[in-house]
Automatic annotation (TrEMBL):
Taxon lineage: Eukaryota, Viridiplantae, Streptophyta, Embryophyta, Tracheophyta
EC number: 3.2.1.-
Keyword Hydrolase: yes
Protein known as: alpha-1,2-Mannosidase
Metal-binding listed as a keyword: yes
CC per GO annotation: endomembrane system; membrane
One Pfam short name: Glyco_hydro_47
Amino acid sequence: MDELACFAPDMLALGASGYGPEKSEQIMNMAKEDMSVGTSWNILRLETVESLMYLWRLTGNTTYQDWGWDIFQAFEKNFRVEFGYVGLRDVNTGEKGNMMQSFFLAETLKYLYLLFSPPSVISFEDWVFNTEAHPLRIAPVNGNKGIGTPVRPFGRKQGKPE
């Protein structure tokens, strides 16, 4: 599976709601069939930890934080070098690359930080992220707090299941 496909959980979590259980099961089965491991490299991309952060914020389920901690510990154990972090050319052999991608610091670590921060650090009621993980404040319109009523997928508030 290409690392960019790791954003798929966010598409499901942030997408349309109101499907019946049979439709949700059908979508998840399609995802299982269509997604498979196709590469053996890891360049410390952000999509997995980004998805974990959003899923934790939407559900309040600390399992997502546990998985994020496991990922961070794997970064420390397998990707850390004297002056930073490098990707692995092959995760099976542990062969390291020779470059730290800028998105690791700018995006991957930012989403890990947010995964372990209270939702009030950057409220999804007031902020959105661009594709480079930069937070952008939602601009007020006509004296309102924001553009409109924030959408809460699945009827949940940030960090707390209803």
